Amino acid sequence: MIGTSEYADLSALDIARHVRHDDVTAVDVVEAALARIAEVDDDVRAFTEVWAEQALAHAADVDARLARGAVLPLAGVPIGVKASEGPGSYQNTRLVAAGCVPVGATSVPRTSRGWQTYGHTDRGPTLNPLDPAWSPGGSSAGSAAAVAAGLVPLASGSDGAGSVRIPAAWCGIVGFKPTNGLLPARDRAGLNSPGVLVGDPLDALAHLDAVTESPVPAARSTYPLRAVWSATLGYADTDPAVAAVARRSARSLAEAGLITLAEGSDLALVDPAPAWTALRAGAPSSTEGVSRVVSTNEERLRDCFQRADLVLTPTTPHPPHGHDGPGTRMSVALTWAFNLSGHPALSLPAGITAQGAPVGLHLVARHHEERQLLDVADRATRLGALPRSLGGGSASEPVPRRCQRVVAQ
Predict the structure, then answer these.
(1) Residues 148, 165: contact at Cβ < 8 Å?
(2) How far is 155 from 151, CA to CA, in rounded Å?
(3) How would residue 397 be classed by pLDDT, with cut points 50, 70 and 90?
(4) pLDDT value, residue 408
C-alpha cells in the first residue's frame, strides 16, 4: 500500500521504479492516485472526468504484463489526459504502451476566447494550486493543475501557442514542447505539438523516450552552453517584475556553470501574431504577410543559434490573471514565436515576484535538440540553480517539493 501524501511526492520515474521492483503494485499506486484526487480535486477542479474503474482494471493489466516479463519503462504511472486529446491520441497511446495508466480527463477551456488561459469544469473554473484566485493558465489547464497539486506526476498537453509552457509557468512546474513535427501535429497548420507537464525534468525525458519511435540525438557533454537572453523578443510588453525574476534565474544557471550569458546580444524578432493567426485560420504559408514574418524570424533565429546554444526569456510577459480572463494581455507573446519557428522549448520554475506571483524561465534550443534542453533542466534542478516547483506566498519563503497552498474557494 502507499499513502496519498507519499504518493504525491513521487516522480513518474520513482513510481515506475517501485512498481518494476515489486515494492508496490500498479494497482496500489492507482488506488493512491484515485484517493488523492478524491481528497484534493474538489479544491482544484483539474479533472473533468475520473476513470476509476477503467484505471484500476488497466493497472491490474500492467501488473499482469510485468509478471509475464514485459518491459515497461513507465510501469504503473498514473497520468492525466488532456480532455481535448483523449486517451486515443498518439502520445497518450504511446504512454500507455510504456506502462502508464490514464486516470482521468483534465480540463480545457470551454471556448476559444481570451487565448484560452483558463480551464472549465462542471464544478466551476480550474483553480491554480499556488493560489485559487489565479488562473492555472492554458489551454492545458487541468493537466498543469493536476501535476502541481500532486494528483498525477505526469499529464499530457498540447502546445499550439504556449498551451503547455504557460500553465507550467503559472503553476510552478515543468512544461515541455518538442520540435514541431517530431510528434504528429494536433492541427492542420502544424503549429500545435503534443507536449507534457511534469514535476521533474527527468520525467519529461522519460516521456520523450516513450512517445518517440526513433532515438532523439543525445545531449552534448560540454558545459557551459552559450545562451542569449531576451526579456521581450523585441516586441512583447513584458512586466519588469516578471522579467527581473526570470533574468535572475538565468544568472543562477550561469553561476552554476551551465551557461554563459552573451551580454548585449538581445534577440529581436518580428511580432508573430499576424502570421500565427493567419496560419491557424487556414491561410497558406506562402501568403505574403505570413511568408515575410516567418522568413524574417527564421533568418534571425538561424543567426542567433549560430552564436548560441539556447535562447532564454520569461515564459509569459505577465503574472497569472484571475478567472475573469487575461483581458488585453497577450500571455502567449513570448511562446508562440517558437510554435511558428518549430523550435523545442520548455518552461522551468524560475521563482516568484515580490508580490508572490510565479514566474517561468523559458528555454529554447535548436531544432531536434530536445535532450539538450532536458539535460540543462535536470542539471539546473539537481544543482539547486532552479527550484523543482514553486510554492509559498512571498519571495522570501522556501520552495517546497510540491505546492502546499491548495485551498478551497
Answers:
(1) no
(2) 10
(3) very low
(4) 29
Considering the candidates 11, 135, 156, 163, report the single residue annotated as catalytic: 163
pLDDT of amino acid 393: 33
- Catalytic residue check, 177: no
Catalytic one of 11, 82, 135, 230: 82
The rounded Cα 150 to chain-centroid distance in angstroms is: 15
**Is 163 a residue of the active site?**
yes
Asked whether the predicted pLDDT for residue 3 surpasses 80, the reply is yes
Q: 116-141, pLDDT tens digit by residue?
A: 678 999 999 999 999 999 999 999 99
Which of 139, 147, 145 has the alpha carbon at shortest distance from 108? 139
Going by C-beta distance under 8 Å and a sequence separation of 6 or more, which residues neighbour residue 192?
158, 159, 160, 163, 185, 186, 339
Task: Say if strands 225-229 and 259-261 run parallel, antiparallel, or are unpaired.
Answer: parallel
Copy the grid coordinates of residue 114. 481570451
- DSSP type of residue 334: T
The question of whether 140 is a catalytic residue gets the answer no
